[in-house]
Amino acid sequence: MLVRHPTRPEWGIGQVQSAIAWRVTVTFPEQGKQMIDARHVTLIVLPERA
Question: Domain of life, per the record (predicted)?
Answer without folding.
Answer: Bacteria
